[in-house]
Write a structure and sequence with these properties.
Layout: E1 52-56, H1 57-70, E2 76-82, E3 90-94, H2 108-120, E4 123-132, H3 141-146, E5 153-158, E6 170-177, E7 180-189, H4 191-198
Length: 199
């Protein structure tokens, strides 16, 4: 088992989706996924959404390590950050209460506790991540339907090629707003760069 580094990224820039999205509901026909479209501008406490996720190396490595460690079960978690900052700062690993290799769900008590904690700390979910253990790092129909944080980056990590063994993963990020999926670039910053930006 090994975490990934910046050189392990197979795909970090937007690219066309090939094939149908993963379907987790038995017997359900895959609907057409809306094509990538423009990112809306939100008003209020969040800034205009950019088409890029900037994440520090340590957080990237921790997400990849979590995905590899939990393989073949889908790993899940969040990275919280100050409200309105779009800066992923605090990684929170969650337990996949379903214990499934094909879908994930948070324990409702854990999720309620996490949101109360973020509220107390003036934080919000900046990154919501989970892994796919047998398919590509692209949101499934279920993932799209459950996406409820339009200001968050939805990160998917595919461990299908190497599982929990050493080797690269597919690490991709998306915005999901009103069912529309838009892939975005991922930029990995060094710890020094991330510290300078947060100061």
């Amino acid at each position: 088992m090994a975490g990934g580094g910046a050189n392990d990224v197979l795909h970090t820039a937007p690219a066309p989706h090939s094939g149908e999205p993963r379907v987790t509901a038995a017997g359900a026909a895959p609907p057409t996924v809306p094509p990538p479209g423009p990112i809306p501008v939100e008003t209020g406490r969040r800034h205009t959404l950019d088409r890029v996720l900037r994440i520090d190396q340590a957080t990237y490595d921790a997400i990849v390590e979590h995905a590899k460690r939990d393989h073949p079960v889908e790993a899940c978690g969040m990275v919280a950050g100050p409200i309105g900052s779009d800066r992923p700062a605090r990684l929170i690993e969650m337990v996949n209460a379903a214990g499934s290799p094909t879908f994930y769900e948070y324990d409702s008590t854990d999720l309620l506790h996490l949101y109360r904690e973020m509220d107390d700390r003036d934080e919000e979910p900046v990154v919501i991540y989970h892994s796919h253990s047998a398919t590509e790092a692209y949101p499934s129909v279920t993932d799209i339907n459950l996406a409820s944080e339009p200001g968050a980056h939805y990160v998917l990590v595919s461990t299908r090629e190497h599982g929990n063994n050493p080797g690269p993963v597919e690490f991709r990020s998306y915005r999901i707003v009103d069912g529309a999926v838009t892939e975005e670039e991922v930029t990995i910053a060094s710890s020094t760069e991330a510290a300078e930006e947060s100061s």
